[in-house]
Write a structure and sequence with these properties.
Length: about 200
């Protein structure tokens, strides 16, 4: 928790993030066995929908300064770490669905990954990144055949990395009068990233 001025709170958030990632991992593995496919798809749809709604609202709306969250992506939940962990959960579910499913559902799941990772970047939630990394590693370890997962990761890697870099260099979350890259430009980039991820996997 060296990066945090509130060490105890950061440790607590990191523990919660790891717990959430473990829950998502269990859901992904259950989905592969066909036990709770509808639950997994519904959870992905709900979490991804909420985070993408939050991202669109953030990018196309007026920047609002918050005393605790500054200009980070924290609405509609009011807490950047909460939005961040939802973005991590939705990303893990999207990767699992894209790995396990076929057809349009596979492409739709892959398409959500780049915008979700842009949203995660704009929350500046380190604990959520930790949960995402741990969850992805665990999925890779527990899969009997990682080939399809590797294909999915390769398809989303470039558009996701591009959006992450754009989000960081944009200064849209920084306490500055105006960002280097505006919200509309990032919104267009997010749409392009989603399209590229789906097209690459098709």
């Amino acid at each position: 928790a060296i990066w945090s001025s509130r060490t105890s709170q950061t440790i607590l958030e990191a523990r919660r993030a790891v717990l959430y990632a473990a829950v998502v991992l269990a859901l992904v593995l259950l989905a592969r066995r066909g036990a709770t496919r509808a639950i997994v798809l519904g959870t992905w749809g709900g979490t991804a929908g909420l985070v993408i709604y939050a991202l669109v609202r953030y990018l196309l709306g007026t920047r609002h300064y918050d005393a605790f969250e500054a200009f980070s992506l924290n609405q509609p939940l009011g807490y950047a770490n909460a939005v961040g962990i939802l973005a991590a959960i939705a990303t893990l579910l999207a990767l699992g669905i894209a790995e396990a499913e076929t057809g349009r559902l596979r492409l739709a799941a892959a398409a959500t990954v780049p915008p979700l990772l842009l949203a995660l970047t704009l929350t500046a939630s380190d604990a959520s990144w930790l949960a995402l990394g741990a969850g992805t590693a665990l999925i890779a370890v527990l899969l009997l055949d990682v080939h399809r997962l590797v294909v999915v990761l390769a398809a989303v890697a470039v558009p996701s990395a591009t959006l992450i870099v754009l989000g960081k260099v944009s200064d849209i979350t920084a306490v500055v009068p105006s960002p280097r890259i505006g919200g509309v430009a990032l919104f267009i980039a997010a749409l392009a990233g989603a399209a590229v991820a789906a097209a690459t996997l098709a």
